[in-house]
Write a structure and sequence with these properties.
This protein is of the alpha+beta class and 63 residues long. The chain is 16% helix and 16% strand. The protein has one helix and two strands; from the N terminus they run ββα. The protein has a two-stranded antiparallel sheet with strand order 1-2. β1 and β2 form a beta hairpin. 2% of the residues are buried.
């Protein structure tokens, strides 16, 4: 992502070297995941909202 001008916030290896938001770890999030359970073979669907601190960083980036 950094190569195309969109570094992942908190990525210390491939980012632009900045950590303006004092994030520990990469700001990566999957809104939803779908997969087949390896034991039951049941189709699984999981959803998770963005963590609050993600929302705050996004709000600051949009300014």
């Amino acid at each position: 992502m950094a190569q195309i001008g969109h570094p992942v916030v908190g990525d210390i290896v491939y980012s632009n070297g900045k950590n303006e938001f004092a994030i520990e770890g990469q700001m990566l999030h999957a809104k939803s995941l779908d997969f087949k359970h390896p034991i039951t073979q049941k189709q699984m669907h999981l959803e998770a909202p963005l963590p609050q601190y993600f929302e705050e960083v996004l709000k600051n980036l949009r300014k």
